[in-house]
Amino acid sequence: MNTTLTLTSSAIKMFVRNRQALFFSLFTPLIIMTIFGLIGFDRVAKIDIGIVSSSPNVPTKTFVDNLKNISAFNIHTDSSDDAQKALMDGNRSIVLIVPNDLIPENPSAGIQPKTIVAVSNASQQQQAQTAITIVNQVLDKTSIALSKAPVLFSVENREINVRNLKYIDFLLPGIVALAVMQMAVFSVAFVFADYKEKGVLKRLLATPVKPSQFVTANVITRLIVALVQAAILIAAGVLLFKAHVIGSYALIFLITLLGGIMFLGLGFTISGIASTVESVPALANLIVFPMLFLGGTFFPINTMPDWLQKVAKVLPLTYFSTALRDVMTKDAHLSDIKSSLIFMMVWAIIFIVTANYTFGFEEKRL
Amino acid sequence: MPNIIEVQNLTKQYGSFTAVDDISFTVYEGETFGILGPNGAGKTTTLEMLEGLKPITSGQAILAGLDVSEETRMVKSLIGVQLQASSFFDGLNLKELVETFASLYGRNVNAMSLLDKVQLTDKAKSRVKELSGGQKQRLSIAVALVNDPKVIFLDEPTTGLDPQARRNLWELITEIKTSGKTVVITTHYMDEAQVLCDRIAIMDNAKISALDTTINLIKQSGVSSSIEFKSSRDIEPWQLEKLPAVDRAVAEHGRYQIISSDPQTTLPVLFKAAHDNNLKLTDLQLRQPTLEDVFLKFTGHELRE
After folding, report:
1. Which range among A212-221, A319-328, B272-281 shows the weakest confidence by mean pLDDT?
2. Is the pLDDT of residue A36 over 80?
């Protein structure tokens, strides 16, 4: 036991001194979180509208300025040619040709109906329709104002924060799961393939230490790292990106450990299969890379096509990120995430068995 | 001297290839035992079977009364091992490395005094990758000593080192030997075996072709010594052949060569005769047979070819 303890403390020293490992386990996930956090998929994109109106009279100009104040719009005042070109290039959803005297300067002198011609981009119909609807509303209001009719109806909008799930809340558990997976798979696969290639494992075999003691020390080390990763990433998500974590930290701890064990098993399996250190990245990426996108890290798997969902629903990362997300965003209890945990356990057992099969201190090939 | 290692009919087979073929030998406690042979002779395989690193195909190896294949872990705790190409953790400095290895034996060790023994005290905070070839081998020996082993196995410790680093390592190995430990060393350098070993097994083609003390091996080889000199006056070769233990004598351009089976008998008589006849012998050289000659004799080919 004393031996395992000393080995663990040595393994921790080695991990912390390995800049590459630190970079991939902490820095990279933080960068990914920052980039995706800044993109902010929950903000609706503004609609680009071109307005052609060469020399509008004062009330018409006021009308155009009012349009500019609508937050959903991104108004560009273009010349006729520019507007057409921008529309053709797909840089505008819609172009509105506004007559200079759309709104009369002197309404009491009688009002002639005027028409705004809207040229819309067929490939951005949704945005164009939205724009037309809003512009119509503004025109209606203007008509009412001009005809001096009383405003009879209005809608009052009151916002209430009902577990307002933002994208960062969705992203954070995914990033934690992703980071633990990358760390567990790569740090084990690289380091152990290297130990094997350089003869470090053979040298250990010449001592009375049991291989299981050495493996245990390295597993404990990486589980500690996994928990530290989760803690740092969650702290960064909450403090820097205002993410909400409402679930139980004990459950997050448990899921992280289980996820760590699962992917460490995968790491040992890969280091056992890899005949050289050079073959590790190819082999590891082959398995890990698809999970990056299909494992429910960046977007929910129910947005994928059906057949892809079937694939996603067998990946170990999917269950890891789903369990974490259920706890962190929905305050799920142990019983709610039972099926995810069972799937993770099944994967953990599969990987531990394959690791036993492929990984050894001596050359052991499949 | 009691036997510390007994090897009987040891054989290692890889499929149809026999790496070690039915060898037997004994190593006495406290001696330095050399296994000399060319690359591919089976030296390393033999060592790795004794160290419990490779399973034995057939035969038996007993170390300190323990059967290596049955009590492998016990045996491992009694021996110190330097592998031919061992490397260590890059992430630890030398002091931490020595301490980590000591913990593998469940021991606490004074790492600094051990590093001092191999002259690496000033490198205690360095990493392995910062060491030179000779320093790496010295570290490897320090690590092999962490458990105060009864037997220390060194597999070609000086291969690839420059002459100075080799001398340095020889001194270290001699010190270890003086401290009473049994040393088993493989080498393909004749001079190394001659300097370090009490007894030598000559291994070639998976078999041991000769085993004896270094001196006896040379004697057994039947290769004679040659005494060469110049003389102030001419001597007839037949006069030289009358000297004791001389097989034959040749004169060539004022230079004389005597082939003697025992220079210790021949030389005093030669000197006395020279003195009596007022002859001045110059440029005197004694060439004794080396293990190189012995190896050629026992295996029928040169060591390095």
Report:
1. B272-281
2. yes
Rounded to two decimals, the pTM is 0.77
Which residues of chain B are within 8 Å of residue A191 when distances are taken between CB atoms? none
Task: Inspect the interface and report whether the beta carbons of A208 and B53 lie closer than 8 Å.
Answer: no
Query: B103 — contact with chain A (CB < 8 Å)?
Result: yes
Quote the domain boundaries for residue A335: 2-41+167-358
For residue A210, pLDDT over 60 is answered with: yes
**Per-residue confidence band for B234, with pLDDT thresholds at 50, 70 and 90:** confident
CB B249 within 8 A of CB B216: no
Residue A151 gets which letter from DSSP? Answer: P
Q: In this prediction, does ipTM exceed 0.85?
A: no
In this predicted structure, the answer to whether residue A363 has a pLDDT above a threshold of 60 is: no
Q: Do B103 and A204 touch (CB under 8 A)?
A: no
Residues recorded for chain A: 366
Where b means 16+ CB within 10 Å and e means fewer, A100-126 reads: eebbbeeeeeeeeeeebebebbeebee
Asked, for residue A218, whether it belongs to a domain, the answer is yes
H or E stretch covering B73: helix B72-78
CB contacts of A196 in chain B (<8 Å) are none
Domains plus CATH for chain B?
Answer: 3-219 (3.40.50.300), 224-288 (3.30.70.100)
